[in-house]
Amino acid sequence: MKPLGFALSILLLLGATAADAQARPRRLLDGKGKQKHNWVVPAQIPPALKLALNAFDRIRYSGTRVIQVKSGTNRQQHTELVLTNGPETRIEFPPESPLHGQIIVENPTERRQYFPARNEIQVGPPQRDQAIQRLATIVARRGVNVDETPGGPVAGMQTEVVSISDKKGNLLQKLWIENKSGMILKRELYDRLGTLQASFEFTQANLNPIIHPTDFKLERKGVRTITPDDILTRIIRKEGFQDVRFPAGTPYKLELARMQKLASQRVLVQQYAGNGHRISLYQLNTTVDPSRLGKIAPAGVQVYTWSAGGASFVLVGDLPEAELKDLGHRLGG
Amino acid sequence: MRNDFEMKREILEEELNSPEQLHVRELVRALPDETLSLTWRSGLNARLQSEMVRRRKLNLFGWVWKPAVGLALAGALAVAFIIPPKGSAPARGGELEKALVTHYVESTASWEVAGDGVSMGEVKDAVNQHTISVDPEQEDVGAL
After folding, report:
1. Between vectors from CA A151 to CA A147 and to CA A154, what angle results, nearest 5°?
2. Do the chains contact at A69 and B113, CB–CB below 8 Å?
3. Could you say which residues from 270 to 299 on chain A have a Cβ atom under 8 Å away from some Cβ of chain B?
4. How many whole angstroms from its chain centre is CA A277?
């Protein structure tokens, strides 16, 4: 009996190990693990999307990602080499890319981008968390339908495709999610007329990458460190704009400040993100028509304008109207 | 009435013939009777003539500068009220408003899909820096 008992024990042990291995992704799927992020995964969403949102904090992969964005009638494309370890990411660019040499390292508290030509590291708020939070916010909306169907292989892996559309059935975006890990292998965003606006696709992916702790460090002595606020201050001084920016108390962090020519006008653009929302503040030395802006803005996007000291300010964001207005008032509008 | 008038006249006659009045009359009569010198008159004429020439010149100049000032003023008013100053004109046909909203929509889509990666603005900057030297803080996307 003894050999038989030993064999049974071995079988039970192997069975338990296999069951545990199968249950691991289910734990992610059910979201029972400890969440490090401050946003909630909606309950009533398809399993693949739930898996992807819950896997954000612990998924590990490396791969080649091709990103495409439509601007006017042109589509621009670039390639990124990505390494991810939960909330930490490292991005490099292939030798043929104009961005080759730049390195981006992101962790839950900051995003560091190294520009070799300027010997400069730009330090800003993390963006990956914001993008995932935004996705969670969109699917949690009442006026949105979320469906899941088999999606076929992407980068050699089987996927489920999640389609997000509005109440009338207009497609907003599609996500191809790897069945077991929850890795989003492909994503497409559509405009209100159903045209592909932006997309990314992994052409190659590895779910078991070799990771070293130094992969997510970006420090070099003698390198100048600069923040988006520093850049904004520099532009304001150089171009003579008014120093109007979001106060420190808001949840929205400045990600980008730049001069831009829009319809032949020189415009100071400030882009903020927070709580899964995106807000842009435009300052320009010309008048704008608020009623026209209101008519052009797509559904879900609010616009608030005001004038001060000979300049016009335009606040555009996907916030409720009252909240955007309140933000405008705090900025002097 | 007539008697009152006659009485006042007599009183006045008496006062005029008073010793004090007679003394003042004598003093005035004693003053020397001066006549204006020809030299002074000539000098005055010369001064008046030169003043007239200056006035004429000023009047002649006035024909030039007064219309010039008027034209300049009218021009300034036209610039201020009719011709809008450069840089403050709203773009025709709502191009600017459209460009602002389009910029928000496109940059948000770029940001959303890029996640932790680079935005399209950064890619454009990098492409521009590869081809021509540009200010890294500025991107010319024109009217979208």
Report:
1. 135
2. yes
3. 271, 273, 278, 280, 282, 284-289, 292-293, 296-298
4. 10
Taking each helix axis from N to C terminus, what angle separates B120-131 and B95-114, rounded to the nearest 10 degrees?
A: 100
Alpha helix (H) ranges present in chain B? Answer: 2-16, 19-30, 38-81, 95-114, 120-131
Residue A82's DSSP bridge partners are A63, A91
**What are residue A144's DSSP bridge partners?**
A166
pLDDT at A165: 94
> DSSP state, A152?
E
Task: Convert the pLDDT of each residue in B31-59 to its tens digit.
Answer: 876 666 778 888 888 889 888 888 888 78
For residue A23, the distance in angstroms to the closest alpha carbon of chain B comes to: 29
3-state secondary structure at position B116: coil
Which of A59, A69, A314 best tests the B interface by mutation, with the highest count of B CBs <10 A?
A69
Would you say residue B62 has pLDDT above 80? no
Can you give the pTM of this predicted structure? 0.68
Arithmetic mean of pLDDT over chain A = 87
Query: What is the Cβ-side half-sphere exposure of residue B90, based on CA atoms within 13 angstroms?
Result: 14
For chain A, what is the total number of helices (H) and then of strands (E)?
A: 6, 17
Tell me if chain B has a CB within 8 Å of the CB of A118.
yes
**For B108, which of A278, A292, A314 is closest by C-beta distance?**
A278
Residue reference for tokens 């415009």:
A267
| Alpha-carbon gap, residue A60 to B15, rounded angstroms | 132
Are A185 and A201 in contact by the 8 Å Cβ rule? The answer is: yes
Q: pLDDT for A239-278, tens place per residue?
A: 999 999 998 888 899 999 999 999 999 999 999 998 888 9
Contact assignment for B106 to A298 by CB distance below 8 Å: no
Out of B112, B116, B140, the one facing A198 most closely (by C-beta) is B112
Which among B88, B108, B142 is the nearest to A261, CB-wise?
Answer: B142
pLDDT-derived band at A12 (thresholds 50, 70, 90) equals: very low
Mutate to test the interface with B, among A90, A237, A262, A289 (most CBs of B within 10 A): A262
